[in-house]
Fold:
Amino acid sequence: MWLLNFIPDSWIAFAVLMILVAGIVMYFAGQIFKYTPFTKQYGLPLRVLGSILLLAGAYLNGGLGVEQEYRARIAEMQQKIEVAQAKSQEENVKIVEKIVTETKIIKEDTQGTLYLIEQMKEKINLGCELTPEVVELYNEGITGRGE
Amino acid sequence: MDRTQRGIVILVIAMMFVLSGCSMFGPNVVPVTMDFPQAPEPILMQPEQLDTLPEDKKQLSDMLENSTVNYGKHRELQLKYKQWQRWYDTNRKLHKETTSGN
Structure:
Protein backbone atom coordinates (compact mmCIF):
# COMPACT_ATOMS: atom_id res chain seq x y z
CA MET A 1 0.00 0.00 0.00
CA TRP A 2 2.95 2.35 0.57
CA LEU A 3 3.34 2.60 -3.21
CA LEU A 4 0.05 4.51 -3.26
CA ASN A 5 1.81 7.33 -1.41
CA PHE A 6 3.77 8.19 -4.55
CA ILE A 7 0.68 8.52 -6.73
CA PRO A 8 -1.34 11.77 -6.57
CA ASP A 9 -4.77 11.46 -4.95
CA SER A 10 -6.58 12.72 -8.05
CA TRP A 11 -5.05 9.97 -10.23
CA ILE A 12 -6.07 7.24 -7.82
CA ALA A 13 -9.59 8.68 -7.47
CA PHE A 14 -9.93 8.82 -11.25
CA ALA A 15 -8.66 5.26 -11.74
CA VAL A 16 -10.97 3.85 -9.07
CA LEU A 17 -13.96 5.71 -10.52
CA MET A 18 -13.11 4.42 -14.00
CA ILE A 19 -13.00 0.82 -12.74
CA LEU A 20 -16.44 1.28 -11.18
CA VAL A 21 -17.89 2.97 -14.28
CA ALA A 22 -16.35 0.33 -16.59
CA GLY A 23 -17.89 -2.40 -14.41
CA ILE A 24 -21.37 -0.81 -14.58
CA VAL A 25 -21.13 -0.16 -18.32
CA MET A 26 -19.89 -3.68 -19.06
CA TYR A 27 -22.56 -5.26 -16.88
CA PHE A 28 -25.39 -3.41 -18.57
CA ALA A 29 -23.83 -3.91 -21.99
CA GLY A 30 -23.82 -7.65 -21.24
CA GLN A 31 -27.50 -7.45 -20.36
CA ILE A 32 -28.30 -5.73 -23.65
CA PHE A 33 -26.04 -8.01 -25.71
CA LYS A 34 -27.95 -10.97 -24.32
CA TYR A 35 -30.98 -9.97 -26.38
CA THR A 36 -29.30 -8.87 -29.57
CA PRO A 37 -28.30 -11.27 -32.32
CA PHE A 38 -24.61 -11.57 -33.31
CA THR A 39 -23.46 -10.29 -29.89
CA LYS A 40 -25.38 -12.80 -27.82
CA GLN A 41 -22.26 -14.89 -27.08
CA TYR A 42 -20.50 -11.83 -25.48
CA GLY A 43 -23.36 -11.25 -23.03
CA LEU A 44 -22.25 -13.61 -20.27
CA PRO A 45 -18.50 -12.85 -20.33
CA LEU A 46 -19.29 -9.11 -20.30
CA ARG A 47 -21.66 -9.48 -17.38
CA VAL A 48 -19.15 -11.60 -15.42
CA LEU A 49 -16.28 -9.20 -16.13
CA GLY A 50 -18.58 -6.23 -15.46
CA SER A 51 -19.62 -7.69 -12.09
CA ILE A 52 -16.00 -8.31 -11.11
CA LEU A 53 -14.99 -4.76 -12.04
CA LEU A 54 -18.08 -3.35 -10.34
CA LEU A 55 -17.26 -5.13 -7.10
CA ALA A 56 -13.58 -4.27 -7.33
CA GLY A 57 -14.49 -0.63 -8.01
CA ALA A 58 -16.90 -0.59 -5.07
CA TYR A 59 -14.26 -2.11 -2.80
CA LEU A 60 -11.58 0.35 -3.91
CA ASN A 61 -13.98 3.31 -3.61
CA GLY A 62 -14.61 2.39 -0.01
CA GLY A 63 -10.90 2.06 0.65
CA LEU A 64 -10.05 5.29 -1.17
CA GLY A 65 -12.27 7.39 1.08
CA VAL A 66 -10.46 6.07 4.12
CA GLU A 67 -7.04 6.43 2.46
CA GLN A 68 -7.73 10.09 1.62
CA GLU A 69 -8.94 10.82 5.13
CA TYR A 70 -5.82 9.09 6.46
CA ARG A 71 -3.53 11.19 4.25
CA ALA A 72 -5.29 14.35 5.39
CA ARG A 73 -4.72 13.35 9.02
CA ILE A 74 -1.02 12.72 8.35
CA ALA A 75 -0.65 16.13 6.68
CA GLU A 76 -2.47 17.81 9.56
CA MET A 77 -0.30 16.03 12.13
CA GLN A 78 2.91 16.97 10.29
CA GLN A 79 1.82 20.59 10.18
CA LYS A 80 1.03 20.57 13.91
CA ILE A 81 4.45 19.05 14.66
CA GLU A 82 6.22 21.71 12.60
CA VAL A 83 4.38 24.46 14.48
CA ALA A 84 5.18 22.82 17.84
CA GLN A 85 8.86 22.44 16.93
CA ALA A 86 9.08 26.09 15.90
CA LYS A 87 7.43 27.20 19.17
CA SER A 88 9.74 24.95 21.17
CA GLN A 89 12.77 26.43 19.42
CA GLU A 90 11.49 29.94 20.11
CA GLU A 91 11.10 29.10 23.80
CA ASN A 92 14.64 27.66 23.89
CA VAL A 93 16.02 30.94 22.57
CA LYS A 94 14.12 32.87 25.27
CA ILE A 95 15.40 30.49 27.97
CA VAL A 96 19.02 30.88 26.81
CA GLU A 97 18.65 34.67 26.74
CA LYS A 98 17.22 34.72 30.25
CA ILE A 99 19.98 32.48 31.62
CA VAL A 100 22.74 34.54 29.98
CA THR A 101 21.28 37.86 31.17
CA GLU A 102 20.53 36.79 34.73
CA THR A 103 23.78 34.87 35.19
CA LYS A 104 25.62 38.07 34.31
CA ILE A 105 23.61 39.97 36.93
CA ILE A 106 24.30 37.28 39.56
CA LYS A 107 28.04 37.36 38.84
CA GLU A 108 28.07 41.17 39.07
CA ASP A 109 26.17 40.97 42.38
CA THR A 110 28.69 38.47 43.72
CA GLN A 111 31.61 40.62 42.64
CA GLY A 112 29.96 43.64 44.26
CA THR A 113 29.55 41.85 47.57
CA LEU A 114 33.12 40.49 47.43
CA TYR A 115 34.37 44.02 46.86
CA LEU A 116 32.43 45.26 49.91
CA ILE A 117 33.84 42.44 52.05
CA GLU A 118 37.32 43.37 50.90
CA GLN A 119 36.67 47.00 51.85
CA MET A 120 35.31 46.08 55.29
CA LYS A 121 37.81 43.31 55.98
CA GLU A 122 39.37 44.92 59.01
CA LYS A 123 36.03 45.67 60.63
CA ILE A 124 34.73 42.15 59.96
CA ASN A 125 37.80 40.41 61.33
CA LEU A 126 38.09 42.57 64.41
CA GLY A 127 38.75 40.23 67.36
CA CYS A 128 37.46 37.17 65.57
CA GLU A 129 39.47 34.19 64.39
CA LEU A 130 38.07 30.93 63.10
CA THR A 131 39.19 27.74 64.80
CA PRO A 132 39.88 24.58 62.69
CA GLU A 133 36.66 23.07 64.10
CA VAL A 134 34.61 25.96 62.72
CA VAL A 135 36.19 25.57 59.29
CA GLU A 136 35.58 21.81 59.39
CA LEU A 137 31.93 22.25 60.40
CA TYR A 138 31.43 24.93 57.82
CA ASN A 139 32.83 22.66 55.07
CA GLU A 140 30.63 19.81 56.22
CA GLY A 141 27.68 22.07 55.58
CA ILE A 142 28.89 22.49 52.00
CA THR A 143 29.96 18.98 51.12
CA GLY A 144 27.61 17.04 53.39
CA ARG A 145 28.68 14.73 56.20
CA GLY A 146 29.04 11.69 53.99
CA GLU A 147 31.77 13.08 51.70
CA MET B 1 -34.84 -14.73 -9.27
CA ASP B 2 -36.06 -11.93 -11.55
CA ARG B 3 -34.03 -9.07 -12.91
CA THR B 4 -34.97 -6.65 -10.10
CA GLN B 5 -34.01 -9.13 -7.40
CA ARG B 6 -30.71 -9.81 -9.14
CA GLY B 7 -30.02 -6.07 -9.33
CA ILE B 8 -30.74 -5.71 -5.61
CA VAL B 9 -28.39 -8.64 -4.79
CA ILE B 10 -25.59 -7.07 -6.84
CA LEU B 11 -26.21 -3.69 -5.18
CA VAL B 12 -26.12 -5.24 -1.70
CA ILE B 13 -22.91 -7.11 -2.50
CA ALA B 14 -21.40 -3.91 -3.92
CA MET B 15 -22.30 -2.04 -0.71
CA MET B 16 -20.67 -4.80 1.32
CA PHE B 17 -17.53 -4.43 -0.76
CA VAL B 18 -17.54 -0.67 -0.16
CA LEU B 19 -17.76 -1.25 3.58
CA SER B 20 -15.10 -3.97 3.60
CA GLY B 21 -12.86 -1.66 1.57
CA CYS B 22 -13.36 1.04 4.22
CA SER B 23 -12.37 -1.27 7.04
CA MET B 24 -9.46 -2.93 5.22
CA PHE B 25 -7.63 0.18 4.07
CA GLY B 26 -7.44 2.64 6.89
CA PRO B 27 -5.07 2.04 9.78
CA ASN B 28 -6.34 3.78 12.92
CA VAL B 29 -3.02 5.23 14.04
CA VAL B 30 -1.30 7.98 12.08
CA PRO B 31 2.37 6.93 11.56
CA VAL B 32 3.76 10.39 12.32
CA THR B 33 5.64 10.85 15.55
CA MET B 34 6.99 13.92 17.25
CA ASP B 35 10.71 13.91 18.00
CA PHE B 36 11.70 14.48 21.60
CA PRO B 37 12.51 18.19 21.87
CA GLN B 38 16.09 19.32 22.45
CA ALA B 39 16.70 21.29 25.63
CA PRO B 40 18.90 24.41 25.37
CA GLU B 41 22.62 23.97 26.08
CA PRO B 42 22.94 26.11 29.26
CA ILE B 43 20.52 23.97 31.25
CA LEU B 44 22.29 20.78 30.19
CA MET B 45 25.65 21.81 31.61
CA GLN B 46 27.10 20.10 34.68
CA PRO B 47 26.30 22.08 37.85
CA GLU B 48 29.22 23.81 39.53
CA GLN B 49 30.41 22.36 42.86
CA LEU B 50 30.29 24.59 45.91
CA ASP B 51 33.70 25.79 47.12
CA THR B 52 34.92 24.64 50.52
CA LEU B 53 36.89 26.89 52.82
CA PRO B 54 40.63 26.04 52.82
CA GLU B 55 41.90 25.01 56.26
CA ASP B 56 44.50 27.76 56.37
CA LYS B 57 41.83 30.46 56.12
CA LYS B 58 41.18 31.63 59.64
CA GLN B 59 39.42 34.95 59.19
CA LEU B 60 35.72 35.65 59.20
CA SER B 61 36.07 37.63 55.99
CA ASP B 62 37.39 34.48 54.25
CA MET B 63 34.28 32.63 55.32
CA LEU B 64 32.08 35.48 54.14
CA GLU B 65 33.82 35.56 50.77
CA ASN B 66 33.42 31.82 50.41
CA SER B 67 29.72 32.05 51.34
CA THR B 68 29.15 34.86 48.87
CA VAL B 69 30.70 32.85 46.03
CA ASN B 70 28.65 29.80 46.98
CA TYR B 71 25.44 31.80 47.23
CA GLY B 72 26.15 33.10 43.74
CA LYS B 73 26.51 29.53 42.47
CA HIS B 74 23.28 28.59 44.22
CA ARG B 75 21.44 31.48 42.58
CA GLU B 76 22.75 30.44 39.17
CA LEU B 77 21.54 26.88 39.76
CA GLN B 78 18.20 28.17 41.02
CA LEU B 79 17.85 30.17 37.81
CA LYS B 80 18.68 27.12 35.66
CA TYR B 81 16.31 24.94 37.67
CA LYS B 82 13.46 27.40 37.10
CA GLN B 83 14.28 27.46 33.39
CA TRP B 84 14.21 23.65 33.33
CA GLN B 85 10.69 23.79 34.76
CA ARG B 86 9.72 26.42 32.22
CA TRP B 87 11.17 24.32 29.38
CA TYR B 88 9.33 21.22 30.57
CA ASP B 89 5.98 23.01 31.01
CA THR B 90 6.19 24.59 27.57
CA ASN B 91 7.15 21.39 25.78
CA ARG B 92 4.58 19.34 27.67
CA LYS B 93 1.88 21.82 26.65
CA LEU B 94 3.07 21.78 23.02
CA HIS B 95 3.15 17.98 22.98
CA LYS B 96 -0.36 17.82 24.40
CA GLU B 97 -1.68 20.33 21.85
CA THR B 98 -0.03 18.46 18.98
CA THR B 99 -1.05 14.94 19.87
CA SER B 100 -4.58 15.62 21.12
CA GLY B 101 -7.20 14.25 18.77
CA ASN B 102 -4.82 11.86 16.97
Remarks:
- Chain A has one domain: 2-143.
- The helical segments of chain A are 9-33, 43-119, 121-125, 132-143.
- Chain A touches chain B through 62 residues (CB under 8 Å).
- The mean pLDDT of chain A is 89.
